[in-house]
Design a protein that fits this description.
Chain lengths: 114, 116
């Protein structure tokens, strides 16, 4: 497919466990973004990648959250020691380089912490 | 700080009726403005965008939006709503930085219901 692919689509885990969320961007898109969508906070920016580097991590809510991107393509968002407040839909978007380039979103990973 | 306000949390219209969804923004310069639509269980789909130029922009699915600088608004319109338009709509401001990227700031969304 030509769109942004995220996996898993749903993840249920116990409090305290670590989780990894994957994003496969559109081929050729060098910019990659992670957002979080939760009932209380709406849609929030988490982190931005340009290639493999992350010049803007300002939205990561705590040091339990980290992300990496390899080969200028796939990105993984990792949440350590999950808490119930981490329950949300995590959305990934990609775009071509440039502030005027529209972001294309994946369908998200719905994370539920028991 | 940049912000986006969508005053209407929930709107219900009849199929075939016209639609206007409101969006107001706060930004220190000419912003990049976007409307996205989200159907249940899916990601965000871009409806239209405004960067500069003509203040009336056309998008997909018959939607249009008008940028009004004096009112700091970017309202979304459609002349005749279809049942398939039922979804949640998000207005967003792009906050471009010198790094050439675009951290989107979203409104809280407006959920649209369409009566047959």
């Amino acid at each position: 497919g030509a769109g942004v692919s995220q996996s898993p689509s749903n993840k249920v885990t116990e409090k305290g466990k670590d989780v990894e969320l994957r994003c496969d961007p559109i081929s050729g898109h060098t910019a990659l973004y992670w957002y979080r969508q939760s009932l209380g906070q709406g849609l929030e920016f988490l982190i931005y990648f340009q290639g493999n580097s992350a010049p803007d991590k300002s939205g990561l809510p705590s040091d339990r959250f980290s992300a990496e991107r390899t080969g200028g393509s796939v990105s993984t968002l990792t949440i350590q020691r999950t808490q119930q407040e981490d329950s949300a839909v995590y959305l990934c978007a990609s775009s071509r380089t440039g502030a005027d380039q529209p972001q294309h979103f994946g369908d998200g990973t719905r994370l539920s912490i028991l | 700080a940049q912000s986006v306000t969508q005053p209407d949390i929930h709107i219900t219209v009849s199929e075939g009726a016209s639609l206007e969804l409101r969006c107001n923004y706060s930004y220190g310069a000419t912003p990049y403005l976007f409307w996205y639509v989200q159907s249940p269980g899916q990601g965000l789909q871009l409806l239209l965008k405004y960067f500069s130029g003509d203040t009336l922009v056309q998008g997909i699915k018959g939607f249009e939006a008008e940028f009004k600088r004096s009112q700091s608004s970017f309202n979304l319109r459609k002349p005749s709503v279809h049942w398939s338009d039922a979804a949640e709509y998000f207005c967003a401001v792009g906050a471009p930085f010198s790094g050439g990227y675009n951290k989107l700031i979203f409104g809280a969304g407006t959920r649209l219901a369409v009566h047959p």
